[in-house]
Design goal:
Elements lengths: L1 E2 L7 E2 L15 H16 L4 E2 L4 E2 L5 E2 H14 L3 H11 L6 H12 L2 H8 L7 H21 L3 H12 L6 H10 L3 H6 L9 H15 L10 H16 L26 E6 L6 E6 L5 E6 L4 E6 L5 E7 L6 E6 L5 E6 L4 E5 L5 E5 L10 E2 L5 E5 L5 E5 L4 E5 L10 E3 L5 E7 L2 E6 L4 E6 L4 E6 L5 E6 L3 E6 L5 E7 L10 E4 L5 E4 L6 E5 L5 E5 L6 E6 L7 E5 L4 E5 L16 E6 L2
Antiparallel strand pairs: 1-2, 3-4, 4-5, 6-33, 6-34, 7-8, 8-9, 9-10, 11-12, 12-13, 13-14, 15-16, 16-17, 17-18, 19-20, 20-21, 21-22, 23-24, 24-25, 25-26, 27-28, 28-29, 29-30, 31-32, 32-33
């Protein structure tokens, strides 16, 4: 954890210790009447309003459209008998007789008849008629070519397709196909594309998208409406943090606060001093923490969500300020405060390499997206990139970083992000050597890059967290307030399903969680007895959150109904399981 005085940048510091339902009648006659009553209710038609042209309580659903969409869904699902029965019983056909004839003619390859029938459907837009005619006649042309009827194909092209004055570039491409079959291949028109029912069904799909929905009911229209309704419910659910498999059509979706990790599941007590930083691995199987006690610890996440100590990484001569997992999670970097960077094997705990530069301290670390190199900010305000063997590959001199500086690199490896001045973040594009700046209103203490590389979460000295969009020109999107920060470096993170939440530490010993889009503060989690320096949300288990504190502990937060299989203290005495917030 770090101290920030009003007149100087936030720095790590030495700090003074913190002090009954009724059953059905058994009478068969009574039971029979009950069954009939229920059956009558189930068979009762949909309630309709006014003249019976609408259904539903708000009179906005047109009955004919509603039935047609259901009929279309039945046919799409393969329930042809049920679809036909619904058409017969309702008296509402899915399509008019003319449209049915048109579709059958296309399926049968009766191209001239289908074009003639198309004009009988009653389309008022001549552009749509010509475009639909083009699709039909193009298929006729291609099938004639396949049958090697070149003269007939040319006649169709010259006398039927060209007069439509539609898609002239395509017309030229089709003309070239009559000269060289190889041109058809270059255009992606293979023999399979012109084979019978398969290609004709594709033409029907294209016609369906082209013609008005009132003429040809779109494929899977009911599914689309239901999915859209679920999307709206999901977007309106402030606490949504469950997978789509948990959504149901039987009731409106609404998550409660119990979907947000808010219960202390474990307290990890293996560090001997303040815990400054922690981070889950990309696969969520490990948690790494670093401390003022000059060590880092790798914790293993068990299948039941419990953490166990895997390795303690020792050897730094100064407090370990940050850690960073490699892209494949097989290795990890630890950065000593203005000291050196060490690379470790996660499986064995062996130190593989030490990165240092004479006369200069290293203050931050990270990985190339391909895992073949690392980068670091230096105390001389430069940024250096090394290969795994420690050979310097690139170096940006000048004021590119501060003595206290977070750094990040985008997944494509093209952009490096760093704090270059007290209130400024630089977005450095490596190839064109082009820079964009994020100018903040106050001193920046830390930042975090979103998983999709499109957003930056910036912590400020003024007790605000700002969300910036960094696609194109940087733009401030949202602000989060409520946590406390007066002297120390406090870190925040994205988390939850689709990274829909923002979590942060706080100097008042609590963990704060906001809804990312609305900015509403959802929860403040008490439990720690010292400032909470850093938080990390498990990317694989949406219901697990970790927090690191000056009280020398790490708290693992989960759901209220989390199934704790082991409630007793762990045998090594350094891990405690909790069933509460204390």
């Amino acid at each position: 954890m770090g101290v920030i005085e009003d007149s100087e940048p936030p720095l790590k510091r030495v700090k003074v210790p913190l002090e009954e339902s009724k059953s059905l009648p058994e009478d068969p006659s009574t039971a029979g009447s009950v069954s009939c009553s229920l059956g009558d209710q189930m068979a009762r038609p949909l309630s309709s309003q006014g003249d019976g042209e609408t259904v539903g309580s708000q009179c906005v659903i047109k009955k004919a459209e509603f039935i047609k969409i259901i009929t279309r869904a039945l046919y799409s699902l393969g329930y042809d008998k049920s679809g036909a029965l619904l058409e017969e019983e309702s008296g509402i056909p899915l399509h008019s007789s003319v449209v049915n004839l048109f579709m059958q003619q296309v399926t049968d390859g009766k191209w001239d008849d289908s074009v003639a029938t198309l004009h009988l459907i009653g389309l008022s837009d001549e552009t749509i008629v010509n475009s639909a005619s083009f699709l039909i006649l193009e298929q006729k042309f291609l099938e004639l070519l396949k049958m090697e009827k070149i003269a007939a194909a040319l006649d169709t092209l010259r006398n039927e397709i060209v007069p439509l004055h539609v898609n002239l570039n395509r017309v030229h491409e089709l003309a070239a196909c009559t000269i060289s079959p190889l041109h058809c291949v270059r255009l992606g028109i293979s023999g399979q594309d012109t084979e019978g029912m398969k290609s004709r069904s594709k033409i029907l799909e294209k016609l369906q998208k082209l013609l008005p929905a009132a003429i040809m009911i779109p494929e899977k229209r009911l599914e689309h409406l239901v999915e859209r309704a679920l999307d709206i419910q999901r977007e309106a659910c402030v606490f949504h943090n469950t997978s789509d498999s948990d959504l149901s059509l039987y009731s409106d979706h609404q998550c409660g606060k119990n979907q947000i990790p808010s219960q202390t599941l474990q307290i990890l007590k293996a560090h001997n001093d303040e815990v400054w930083f922690l981070q889950f691995s990309h696969n969520g199987k490990y948690l790494a923490s670093s401390s003022k006690d000059q060590s880092a610890i790798i914790w293993e996440v068990k299948e039941n969500g419990q953490m166990s100590l895997k390795h303690t990484l020792c050897g730094h001569q100064k407090p370990v300020s940050t850690v960073s997992f490699s892209p494949d999670d097989s290795q990890i970097l630890t950065c000593g405060q203005e000291e050196v960077i060490k690379r470790w094997d996660v499986s064995s705990g062996e130190c593989l390499h030490v990165y240092e530069k004479s006369g200069v301290g290293l203050i931050s670390c990270g990985w190339f997206p391909d895992g073949r190199g690392i980068f670091s900010g230096m105390t001389d305000r430069t940024i250096c990139l090394w290969d795994l063997d420690g050979r310097e590959m690139e170096c940006w001199k000048g004021q590119r970083t501060l003595r206290i500086s977070d750094m990040a690199i985008t997944d494509d490896g093209k952009r490096i992000i760093s704090i270059c001045r007290e209130s400024t973040i630089v977005l450095l594009d490596r190839e064109p050597k082009f820079e964009k700046l994020i100018e903040e209103v106050d001193m920046i203490t830390s930042f975090s890059l979103s998983k999709d590389n499109k957003f930056l979460l910036v912590n400020l000295i003024n007790q605000e967290i700002h969300l910036w969009s960094i696609e194109g020109d940087p733009k401030l999107v949202s602000k989060y307030k409520g946590h406390k920060r007066t002297r120390f470096i406090i870190r925040s993170c994205f988390g939850g399903l689709g990274q829909a939440f923002i979590a942060s530490g706080s100097e008042d010993s609590q963990v704060y969680i906001w809804h990312r889009c609305s900015g509403d503060l959802l929860l403040a989690l008490p439990g720690h007895s010292g400032a909470v320096n850093c938080v990390s949300w498990n990317p694989a288990n949406l219901h697990i959150l970790a927090s690191a504190s000056d009280d020398r502990t790490i708290r693992i937060w989960g759901l209220d109904d989390f199934d704790l299989k082991r409630r007793e203290d762990h045998s090594n005495g350094s891990i405690h399981h909790c069933n509460g917030r204390s």
